[in-house]
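Re: the 333-residue chain
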Amino acid sequence: MSGFQDEKRIVREYYDALDASPTSGITQTLKNHTAENYTWRAFHPFGLQTNVEQVSDLFWQPFRTAVTSVQRRMDVFFAGNNFIDGGGSVWVCSMGHLMGLFDKPWLGIQPTQKMAMLRYAEFHKVVDGKIAETAFYFDIPHFMIQAGYTPFADPTAAHMIQPGPAPHDALLFDDADPAEGQKTLDVMHTMIDDVGQWKLGLPLEEELARSWHDDMIWWGPAGIGATYTIERYAKQHSGPFRSGLSGRSGTGHIARIAEGQYSGFFGWPNFTAKPTGGFMGLPPSDKDCEFRVIDVYRREGDKLKENWVFIDILHFFNQMGIDILGDLKGSAK
């Protein structure tokens, strides 16, 4: 799990070109850096796209027109061989915020003329010198809250602009020790095995303590929020999540990587579950709903310490018949 300099360089060159490109040049920039059969996955309302013109027209040009003077504030950058395909592909993960001035409407969200940040995490698969696949997951409700909207009634945890890792050491432009990456991957696998099916049989806090430090931090999406310590995480997210959902499917990931003390994964979807106990204040339902998720982790010692989580909450609500972006008039500013 080392030797990712070429892949990291390709992604960094793509970011440099994209961030410097005028709006009119974004389509060409995407063409220059992506493979012919490019696949782009993004949160609702953008979905899966296989044409760079569509990616440019649907997301990048409208976003860059609405949010001016965009600055990429990257907190995490690492790469790894994909565990899911036996190490046959290399993916590069980036996480942070796209910060700019919210000057024009975007997705029906009205501008503030003030700073705003789009919280994002991204996975890129690099093949033959080009980006062949991208998972670009971003927290639109988090952006809405900064603009004065209240898309959710009662988040169980705290809403805030989320910082990067506490040690400020996650920009792995140089390759990390492969042995450290393996340790991180192993701890993440223990957590996935324990948490993924909710069948270990231990009390929740005891289960979590197998793979998490007591003072762990869970940086969750808007609508759920961030929470600190195993005890509060169990009360403010994990407990309500498990009581609100049932019939969870197996975990399905497209990529799962680790380097140094950092790791992550994403799926499309990661799993399905039925909100039979109600979830996020919605009425109970027997509908199988998809959950599209990116998770990024930091290991400290032999356990996980921090977790940044991106869940397509808009997609979940949409599956339940609630179109938050389509009904912004109902989300009072």
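The two ends are 47 Å apart (CA to CA).
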